[in-house]
């Protein structure tokens, strides 16, 4: 009997000690009915940003999900973003590992997918100081000018060769216009069935790993050939400095640290982050302008007041085109090209608000939901570029406008992206007249994917503006 009493006393002490030292975790609110193995996957429908916005309105700005084996924390308010990505920035500085990342990230050495540490800091410093600094952007302005003028030449050529009747052109017959950059996108941040249910990776039911392996090999051959070609051209005197010129110079100084794998990884990052997203934003912007002719007229007026009609605009002209820059900002608010910020992953247990977040939790911030929140943005569904004009900005937009992320893992190329998009949009408006196809509005339905494409590609009519014919012919 004494031994039994001793056993119960010992058990009580052990349980009490465990409760005192390891109290029950208070996880963020979560939808009920998580299934074994699947978790909350049954609740996930496309478009995902709208589905999770609906769930977050019911369960709060911090919402915890079990998606198969993955633990996911969904953020849907500026204060939640500030708490996690600002105050707990170090805890959420890593990236989750994925099936696609295993094949497409050069062993997670690329900037976008590498975990926080010395290697990541080195790559980040390079991009910040050598590629996206003010002086670097100025030095590379010629590259952007040449790229935009190539687009203008091709579009002008198409209108001359394929003119229909009154000289208008149906851009649906010229897929390159809004489709060229999209086709180069590599979905290296894609998460598939095997990321949530590991056994599916073993069987590779959907042949995802076979496809990714093929992409990886073809891409590597392409990049090797491209590097060899550009390396031969570095000895040729050029008027502008490209990204590869920077990398080759760094490689010459330190060949081990900046080997070809690292350079190819940086190219992957630039392609993935800067091509598809920019093309999508321009397509959304043109669609919005065609549906809002009063905004299009204001943009044309700004161009006429600041740019001579006998020349094509330059990168340096953007400082005098704040309204067109505001159109890009408002487009990014309404249709962020990546509706969720690139996922973070917690490297340790931490507390956000009053909730405990386990180590290894994937953090996704619903930028689309925050950009459409009526508590944050007056008339959030209205296309109103004026809200981004500096004269009307009365408060900080930090944590409220996050198309390029925020914190130490925010996109370092946001400034370049907005500059490229504004230059391209302004050039298209300066050189061509644009009209809708048909009498109804342009379809603004959203498609599915990691990025936010239009469900229906833009179809529009265009023709060169008479006053720009001479400049276009010499572009």
TrEMBL record:
Keywords: Heme, Iron, Membrane, Metal-binding, Monooxygenase, Oxidoreductase, Signal, Transmembrane, Transmembrane helix. Coiled coil: none annotated. It is a single-pass membrane protein. Residues 1-17 form the signal peptide. InterPro entries: Cyt_P450, Cyt_P450_CS, Cyt_P450_E_grp-I, Cyt_P450_sf, Plant_Cytochrome_P450_Monoox. GO terms for biological process: secondary metabolite biosynthetic process. This is Cytochrome P450. Pfam families: p450. It is found in: Membrane. GO terms for cellular component: membrane. Its cofactor is heme. The keyword Ligase does not apply.
């Amino acid at each position: 009997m004494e031994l039994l009493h001793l056993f119960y006393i010992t058990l009580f002490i052990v349980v009490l000690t465990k409760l005192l030292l390891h109290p029950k975790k208070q996880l963020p609110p979560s939808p009920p009915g998580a299934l074994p193995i699947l978790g909350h996957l049954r609740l996930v429908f496309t478009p995902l940003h709208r589905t999770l916005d609906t769930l977050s309105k019911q369960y709060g700005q911090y919402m915890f999900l079990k998606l198969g084996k993955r633990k996911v924390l969904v953020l849907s308010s500026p204060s939640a973003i500030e708490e996690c990505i600002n105050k707990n920035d170090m805890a959420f500085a890593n990236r989750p590992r994925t099936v696609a990342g295993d094949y497409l990230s050069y062993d997670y050495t690329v900037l976008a997918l590498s975990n926080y540490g010395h290697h990541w800091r080195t790559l980040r410093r390079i991009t910040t100081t050598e590629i996206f600094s003010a002086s670097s952007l100025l030095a590379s302005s010629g590259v952007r000018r040449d790229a935009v003028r190539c687009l203008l030449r091709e579009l002008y050529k198409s209108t001359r060769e394929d003119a229909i009747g009154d000289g208008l052109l149906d851009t649906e017959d010229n897929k390159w216009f809004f489709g060229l950059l999209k086709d180069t996108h590599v979905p290296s941040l894609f998460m598939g069935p095997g990321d949530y249910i590991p056994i599916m990776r073993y069987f590779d039911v959907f042949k995802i790993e076979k496809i990714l392996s093929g992409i990886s090999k073809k891409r590597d051959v392409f990049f090797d050939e491209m590097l060899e070609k550009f390396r031969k051209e570095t000895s040729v005197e050029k008027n502008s400095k490209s990204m590869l010129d920077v990398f080759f110079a760094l490689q010459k100084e330190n060949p081990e640290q900046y080997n070809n794998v690292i350079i190819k990884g940086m190219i992957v990052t630039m392609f993935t982050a800067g091509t598809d997203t920019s093309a999508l934003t321009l397509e959304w912007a043109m669609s919005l302008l065609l549906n809002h002719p009063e905004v299009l007229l204001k943009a044309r007026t700004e161009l006429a007041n600041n740019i001579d009609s006998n020349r094509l605009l330059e990168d340096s002209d953007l400082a005098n085109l704040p309204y067109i820059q505001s159109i890009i900002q408002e487009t990014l608010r309404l249709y962020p090209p990546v509706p969720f910020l690139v996922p973070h992953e917690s490297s340790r247990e931490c507390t956000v608000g009053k909730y405990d977040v386990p180590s290894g939790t994937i953090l996704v911030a619903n930028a689309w939901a925050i950009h459409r929140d009526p508590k944050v943005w007056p008339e959030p569904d209205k296309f109103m570029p004026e809200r981004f004009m500096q004269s009307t900005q009365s408060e900080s937009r930090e944590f409220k406008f996050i198309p390029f992320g925020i914190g130490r893992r925010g996109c370092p190329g946001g400034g370049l992206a907005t500059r490229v998009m504004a230059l391209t949009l302004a050039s298209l408006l300066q050189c061509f007249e644009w009209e809708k196809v048909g009498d109804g509005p342009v379809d603004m339905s959203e498609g599915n994917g990691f990025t936010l494409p239009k469900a229906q590609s833009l179809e529009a009519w265009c023709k060169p503006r008479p006053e720009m014919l001479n400049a276009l012919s010499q572009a």
